[in-house]
Each structure stands twice: as structure tokens, then as C-alpha cells.
Amino acid sequence: MYIRALAGLQKALGPDHTSTLATINNLGGLYRDQDKLDEAEQMYTRALAGREKALGPDHTSALHIVNNLGLLYCYQGKLDKAEQMYIRALAGREKALGPDHTSTLDTVNNLGNLYRDQGKLHKAEQMFIRALAGCEKALGPDHTSTLNTANNLGILYCNQGKQDEAEEMYIRALAGCVKALGPDHTSTLDTVNNLGNLYSDQGKLDEAEAMYTRALAGYEKALGPDHTSTLTTVNNLGSLYCNQGKQDEAEEIYIRALAGREKALGPDHTSTLDTVNNLGNLYSDQGKLDEAEAMYTRALAGYEKALGPDHTSTLATAHNLGLLYHDQGKLDEAEQKKALEPNHASTLATVNNFENHLDNPNQRQWKFRKVIRKIWRTRVTK
């Protein structure tokens, strides 16, 4: 319908009319939801250029597309470009609409998601708390925007290890979404998936499996088997199977997630790299050390490029590779990976644990692996 409307509007009103540009923007949103990210970027870029020309760069209609571009860049893993868009949108919306307008709060929430993905957890918390308070005041505690922010704050609390606070946010979001949207809505399923992550962290593996299975069935029905939301739950289910010792099932699930993410997002997207790293963990546990090394090396190079050397995902994968080198008897390589950014606050505890492990070669490193993977999982939750 959008394509039909666009053709008609271009013919009747011209390519630069605001109604034409609105349809182009809407088509970009459709492509984004369909995981056609390149096509979405083309639509958003075209719509933004047209609105800037017709209305100026600070008009709210232009800022709306700027915010959408930020969201798209996040999906594409282009986090620096996303941050530029969000900061521009936030400054413009605060000036034009005020700090408490719902459109402003939407960008505040988006910045919180971005900062969380970048590992800037304190800044993310500030954004989410501001957005939640604003949405509660402007829209009420049961509005879907409020519930979405509560869900996002739950994810952050999980990443910070605040499990009780996370569970409180998730249960609030789930109850509200079921009431407002129904049990099969994708926003409801997002929270179901996140509750699965929390229960997995708490060691409640049966409860986690029930959540993941419910979310996966819902996503497959609503979005299809190859949608990125579906694949996120597939990846999470693979991690659960690993924790349950179901290695064959885990491998099957991870391979599905990796193939789907490579196709939908590309081989270098951080979500793709998450699954690559997970496969490295699995192969290491299975004693397939060469395959594990290939996965870790690929994940590490990708994380360094996409997130930088100081991100927790980069650091944890470096340590995973160091542990693998130790298993292979490559002690020089192990020491090199262990010493990555040795003075970084996020690595001091893990470095000390690794050094203790080297001093006690007969002690199995399963406890340290658990610590490392707990750090790495800050990126798994979506």
C-alpha cells in the first residue's frame, strides 16, 4: 500500500511534497520492521533530505526522521552514527518541544538503549530513569511507552547484576503488556524473552526454558522464523541448552542463529558476533579447540572494530581466547590475551583470577569461565 501511495503522491504532488516525504518515511519504517535495513536507510535518508530542504533541519518533522535514522543505525550496529543522530534529535526536540514532551522522552529512551549497548551503563540508567519518570507523568503508568521503558530498565538492571530490581521491572512490564496488547504481541514477547534471560541468570533453568519457548513460538508466528527478534530468542535458547548440558541441541540452535543473523544483519554485526562467541564457548566445552579458536578470533576482531578495545564484550572474548590458548598449551599467546588492557577497571578482577589459574595449572578453570561469560552476557540481552 505504501508503494502504491508513494507512486500516486509523487505523480500528483511531486517528490518533495511533505505528504510524499511522510510516505517515504513510513516505507522506511516498514522496511526496518521487515529487516530490510539497506532499503530502510535509503528511504530515511531520502525523507530526511527532503524535509530539511522543505522545512529546515530543526523542524520537528525532520527531527522525527533523525530519531528514526538513529534507531536504524542501532539495528545495523553503527553505534557511533546512531549516537550522533540521537544527540541531534534530543537537542532539537528539547528546544522545540520541551524536555518533558513524549517525543523528547522517546529519544531519551533510545539513547538509554544505545548507551547500554555501548557498555555505558551509568549513562544508560540516567536516560531510562528520566524517560520512565516522564512517561509516567505524561502518559500514565500503564501506557505502552511507559511499559517499554520499564522493560528497558529491567534489561539494564540485569546487566548491572541487580536481579531483584530487574525482575520487578519485567513483571510490571509483562503484566501491563498482556493487559494492553495481548499475550501474543511482540512487545509482550520481548518481555517474556527478557524474563527468560533473568531466570537463566538466577539459575532457574526450567523457568527460563518455559519463557524462551513461549517467546520463540510467538515470534515465529508473528514475525517469521528468520526475523531478528526470533533469532535473538534462538540464540538465548542455545545459551540455556549449554547451561543444561544439552550440547548437541545448543549447537543446532546456535548454527541456526548464526546463519540467520549473518543473512539478516551481516557477518560483522554485534548480534552476529554474539552468536559467534557463543559457538566458541560451546566448541571449547566440547573439546573442539581449533573450531573454538576460529570463533573466538573472529568475534574478537569484530568486537574490537565495532565496539572498541574497552567494551566488556571485547574484553571477555579476549579472555575466553586466552583461556583457550592455555588449554592448547600456547602459554605465550594466553598471556598476551590475558594482559589486554590490564589497567582497565573492567578487567582487573578477571586478570587476577587468570593469574591465579596459571599458578595452579591442575585446577580447572570452570569458575573463571563462568565469571567471564557472565561479563560477556551483558551484550546478549536484547
From TrEMBL:
Source organism of this protein record: Penicillium solitum
Name this polypeptide is given: Uncharacterized protein
Signal peptide limits: none
Spell out the residue ranges that the record assigns to TPR repeats: 21-54, 189-222, 273-306
Q: What Pfam family does this protein match (any one)?
A: TPR_12
Q: Which InterPro entries match?
A: NLR-like, TPR-like_helical_dom_sf, TPR_rpt
Alphabetized, the UniProt keywords read: TPR repeat
The residue stretches assigned to a coiled coil in this entry are none
* Statement: the UniProt record of this protein carries the keyword Thylakoid: no
